[in-house]
Design a protein that fits this description.
269 residues
Length: 269
């Protein structure tokens, strides 16, 4: 009997040790949208994320659980072997667009793969290569973080940092440049992007109001890769978010695009 009790104790300790290396988190929300003059609708969302850690190895598995079945949404592993970091994306997400007027992707493509990075002795630079043969060099110099990826479809270079109290980010992809600026003026956080989108955030964490100006979207014809894009006129949104004592967050968003008001209650754990 004593041996059985001892065996049970060892088993319990082993199980406790295994569970201690697993973290469970997730989120859930319910939204009501009056859709302006159209019919109102209610939507739901619930997600779970399991994170397992053993030494320098981390595995994360995400899932959407609000549908009719448990659907995997992500699966990745990261580990270190000396100066080498290996990251494996093991979940092939559905990238094809179900709408023919959104400009989304026409054909399904694989987005899973493996990236291997080496902490090379080039100042603060890190060199990485993925299973597609793309080579990426990243590093931070004088407070500016830079990344350059060489690929057959066109090189991508990004630079970001804080200059005189202003957060600046610039990206050049295959010759096309985009940028964003962010700063705080009299307690109001302002952001401006090259797409002409402007946002202003008022208040403190747990009680905020965000005012956004969304630029117009021009129509575009369908090509071999993407569906056509439907033109959308410029519009504005006002979103108010409030943390409740129940642990949930209540948000109300008004959009001038269709004169709609959306109420959303969400919780993250």
């Amino acid at each position: 009997m004593k041996k059985l009790i001892a065996l049970f104790a060892v088993s319990a300790m082993a199980s406790t040790s295994a569970v201690a290396a697993i973290a469970l988190s997730g989120s859930s929300s319910v939204s009501y949208d009056d859709n302006g003059s159209a019919a109102s609708e209610t939507t739901y969302d619930a997600d779970l994320l399991v994170t397992g850690t053993a030494g320098s190895t981390t595995v994360t598995i995400g899932a959407d659980v609000d549908g009719t079945s448990f659907a995997t949404s992500s699966a990745a592993m990261s580990t270190k072997i000396g100066p080498v970091t290996v990251v494996a994306d093991m979940h092939d997400e559905i990238t094809i667009e179900d709408s023919t007027v959104s400009g989304g992707q026409i054909a399904e493509g694989a987005d899973s793969g493996v990236t291997i990075s080496l902490d090379a002795p080039i100042g603060d630079a890190t060199v990485g290569v993925d299973n597609s043969g793309n080579v990426t060099i990243t590093g931070t110099w004088s407070g500016i973080t830079m990344s350059h990826t060489s690929k057959s479809a066109g090189d991508t270079t990004t630079a970001s940092g804080s200059i005189a109290g202003m957060d600046v980010s610039v990206t050049n992809k295959a010759g096309a440049t985009t940028w964003s600026l962010g700063t705080t003026v009299s307690g109001v956080a302002l952001t401006l992007a090259s797409s002409q989108k402007v946002t202003a955030t008022f208040g403190l964490a747990g009680n905020t109001m965000v005012v956004s100006s969304i630029p117009a979207v021009a129509s575009a014809a369908q090509d071999a890769t993407n569906y056509s894009v439907t033109a959308v006129a410029a519009y504005s949104t006002v979103a108010i978010s409030r943390s409740l004592t129940s642990g949930a967050t209540l948000a109300a968003t008004y959009s001038t695009a269709n004169d709609s008001l959306t109420l959303k209650a969400s919780v993250a754990f």
